[in-house]
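ugh ok fine here u go
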Amino acid sequence: MAGKLTTSIFLNFQNKFKERCTTLLIEAYHTSKSNNSICLDFDENDITAILHSYIDKNPKRKEWKISSNLENYLFDDNSIYSKGFAAKFSRIDMRYSIFWENEEYKYFVEAKNLKENDSSLKRRYITTGIDNFLSGGKYFDCDGFLVGYILEGTVEDCKEGINKLLIKDKREKEIIEKISTFLSIDNHFSNHPEKSIYHLFLNYVN
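structure:
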């Protein structure tokens, strides 16, 4: 019974941590919209940097004792130490972390620009986004989610464009589907043989 109770408490902590990380990002998005901080020709790193600045200033982050940083390098324990080796490490766009019971827990974010009429961006969302979280990908060992910055068209059009590419690749069971709504933003998930991936689409067009 004690083991089940401990597991239940941990899962509750983990779910709350992830919910708070998502809350910080969504609130940063709403702030960036109200401040007109984002231009539609920005690179994805520009947008992520602005959102992170709002996350950093959000009093809730300190209240929840969550730390965050940009461009997190993922250390490769199999690396051969030689001059310049660290520059070859994979980088993920954002990392949240928190300590609980003397252990550190991390939650990662990878962001991609999306446009309705740009199939290359949708393909990139799959190959350097979705696939990097799956077996053999750069972020397979990372617990995290994908963010799509919509810079042209609608969330639905961009999502359907990604799904058409997945279907073309004979990955019909891995399409992205809306599950629920949180803080006025739709939650999307895709199910894969190894894991499920959470997707957050942030529309800057309207």
